[in-house]
Amino acid sequence: MITGTTKLIAHLGYPTESFKAPLIYNPYFEKNGIDAVVVPMGCRPEDHPAFLKLLFRLSNIHGALITMPHKISTMALLDETSTNANVAGSCNAVRLGSDGRLIGDMFDGEGFVRGVLRKGKKVEGAQALIAGAGGVGSAIAASLAQAGVGHLAIFDANETTATALRDRLMKYYPQLEVTVGSADPAGFDIVVNATPLGMRRGDPLPIDIERISPSTFVGEVVMTKEITPFLEAVRARGCAFQVGTDMLFEQIPAYLEFFEFPTTTADNLRAIAKLG
User: Fold this and answer.
1) In the predicted model, what is the mean pLDDT of the chain?
2) Which region among 5-9, 57-61, 86-90, 225-229 has the lowest average model confidence (pLDDT)?
3) How confident is the model at residue 262 (pLDDT cuts 50, 70, 90)?
4) DSSP 160-176
5) pTM, whole model, 2 decimals?
6) 8 Å CB contact between 73 and 44
7) What letters, b where the CB count within 10 A reaches 16 and e where it falls short, cover 178-187?
């Protein structure tokens, strides 16, 4: 039930047809008696800068979830951004500070890292390889750095993209060892596919499976299929792994904390979500 006291959280992106967040947040709010609602709002890129500012002039706005294609452009519209957002170069959550300032953060990588830790894999001091230095790969790199990873290797087909991520990491984490240019997974404790490979039938595997040790923890970001060909291959090698949707559900407790709502667990959210 939406009333005059309900706190509005906008889900900003375009188009909105594939939005899943309302089907996760709203059942949680309803079950726990939280007077808030997530509302999809389709905002075209050319309208976004003006609309975001006007949105936060509403007296009952509480925050906004930011999704494609606005994650990067939102950064320039904010008064304060977190280290994770600055390293990722993008933002997926905005809230209104007590002084009226717009505060932004990035939780894609936080969801990934929380999932890894909850599965019992140590991140602090670990050797990690990320294939893919785009939006999600950059966010995961930022959160791994924040969690204290020892060495971060970055590979992207576009070397300029990988180098730019390395430079942002070094700015905020000057003690972190960061290397660029190789997708060889040998010797790494954590290996992440942050590329789109696996979304379409016939895609090549993003990493040479034969070079991955059975003791390596493997993460996937593709969400269109739970067990992608890449995860199927590493599972056959005996690797522990994390599916793409784990990152989605694990980041929502972090969002709830950011918006100062009562938090929960990823398992609880999975149980009550109405994804169909």
Assistant:
1) 95
2) 225-229
3) very high
4) HHHHHHHHHHHHH-TTS
5) 0.92
6) no
7) bebeebebee
Residue 276 has pLDDT above 90, yes or no: no
d(CA 169, CA 152): 10
Of the residues 20, 31, 53, 71, which is catalytic? 71
Q: What are 231's two structure tokens?
A: 């995860």
DSSP code at position 238: T
The set of residues, in sequence order, having a beta carbon less than 8 Å from that of 70 and lying 6+ positions away, is 12, 13, 14, 43, 45, 48, 52
The Cα–Cα gap between 53 and 270 comes to 33
Structure tokens at 239: 């690797």
* Nearest partner of 211 among 243, 242, 183, judged by Cα: 183
State whether residue 250 is helix, strand or coil. helix
Does 71 qualify as catalytic in the annotation? yes
Return the closest-CA partner of residue 21 out of 56, 66, 63: 66
> Confidence class of residue 273 from pLDDT cuts 50, 70 and 90?
very high
Strands (E), the chain: 7-13, 36-42, 61-66, 80-81, 93-96, 102-105, 127-131, 151-155, 177-180, 190-193, 217-220, 241-242
Which DSSP letter does residue 262 get?
-
The pair of three-digit structure tokens given for residue 266, joined into one six-digit string: 């990823």
d(CA 169, CA 141): 8
Residue 101 CA to residue 95 CA, distance in Å, equals 8
pLDDT-derived band of residue 258, with 50, 70 and 90 as boundaries? very high
Both tokens of 176, joined, read 């972190």
* Residue that the structure tokens 């005059």 belong to: 4
